[in-house]
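Appendix B, example 12.
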Amino acid sequence: MSLETKATILVVDDSPTLRKMMVSALNDLYECIQAQNGEEALEIVREQSPDVILMDVVMPGRNGVEVTSELYNNKETQNIPVVLVTSTKVTSDDLEKGLKSGAIDYIRRPFDDIELKARVASAVKLSQSFQNLEKQNKELAQLNKIKSEFVAVVSHDLRSPFTSILGLTEILTEIMPDPLTAEQRKMITTISNAAETQLNYINNILDIAMSNAGTMNLKCEKVDFATLVEHSCDLLRGRSEEKKISLNFIKESEVEPIYLDKAKVSQVINNLLTNSIKFSHENSQIELTLKQVHQIPEKIQSNIKSENLEKVLKARNCIQLTVKDYGIGFSEKDLSVIFERYYQKKKRYGTKGEIGSGLGLDICKAIVELHNGVIWVMNNDDEEGVNVGFFIPYPEE
């Protein structure tokens, strides 16, 4: 319905006389169509989608309340305003049921033309508001899709040079004819760390774009989880050694292979480990503990905010990875919002001045939850530092 076209009013009543009276009162202002019962009204709505419906409450077959409820519970028709038309015999309880079923208003017979026109005019304004909002939502969704596609393309193009830099620095250390001096090795490490940091930011932005567009999909394969953890430790060991931080990988139990997205879960481990290195003190250690578990300790459960928690609690087996550092930890206020995107309203620096983007933990949560898992973080009990970890359930066979 546009401002240039008349609104369409569907008049539903089993009495031809009453239908004629209402149509006669409204015909000069609106396009009126008629239905003599609930079933006919539903068929007309499916074909023509009127702007407002005047619905008689008492009709043979399906009454007006039942038809209104069906319209309201259908996503395609729930925003069509329904005004119930009742007689004085209809009780207040019946009217309450009608309004709870989805009607926006009611009018009692006998009524005069002025009252009927006023009620319908209000309903038409509401209908226009719903339609404008729906149009805006569609436009915003389209703009968001375009933006996400643009970010995805740009991020993809930006990844290539940084991937090349990382590969070339690795080759450079292998083909140099003489042993590298400490200064040369430091320069190559600096180049590699800078490229890796920027690549991580780009990957996070790309994942946010895919998450917003609803296109973050998993490519699952059978994976040895311990190998993923070892690879992340090897990848980030150079960065930890710059701060004289030792990385200790502890495998507390045998862990069966699990189906998951290898690249995305590696990204989660890298993000968690990068954060721990960033906020750890020099000459400290970080412990990565891996095990296969059958239940989640209650203390950890109380720190998990996720709709997936119930699924994980019901799972027979889960992988648990915990990253424990002895760094600066988080305030209780930060812990309550730590998984929100861009939660860092003030810049939070690492122990050597490193700064985070505020993206990493949000992306970690999205990826873990795509695997039906949960993620958590809490400060250490009796010492400085943080425990952060996640549980991913084994798929049911």
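Residues 8-111 form a domain with the Rossmann fold fold (CATH 3.40.50.2300). The mean pLDDT is 84.
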